Amino acid sequence: MTVNFTVQANGIILITVIGKNTVNDYVSTMRDIARDESARGLNRFLIDTTQVESTLSSDQLGQLAKLLGSSKSDQRTAVVVSSDAQFGKTRMYQSMADDPTMNIFSTVEDATDWLLEST
User: Fold this and answer.
1) Which residue from 41, 51, 87, 101 could staple onto 71, CB 3.0 to 4.6 Å apart?
2) Which residues touch 119 (CB under 8 Å, ≥6 apart)?
3) Separation between Cα atoms, residue 54 and residue 32, nearest integer Å
4) What is the pLDDT of residue 66?
5) To the nearest whole percent, how much of the chain has pLDDT over 70?
């Protein structure tokens, strides 16, 4: 699996997820972001999962929710999905993580607009 991130000019951290995913892939990427100087102080995340081949199981989602915990109150996360199954799994994660600062979208454009509106 490939998980890449870039810091965009608008201050959004774009995380692109490609292929099959594991909990460790997500955790490793979040650690990389925390260590990246260009990402310091940024609190808007856009996670593009439209190229994911399979979703995490319910148990893996619970594990990820425990490891990453709830977001900071000033943080916003937009997740872009391409199917009803992805939407359902992402909504399950949102509930497990008790994360009111997260929203789910079907397009990158809508997700970006929401992130920029909330700054």
Assistant:
1) 101
2) 11, 44
3) 23
4) 65
5) 87
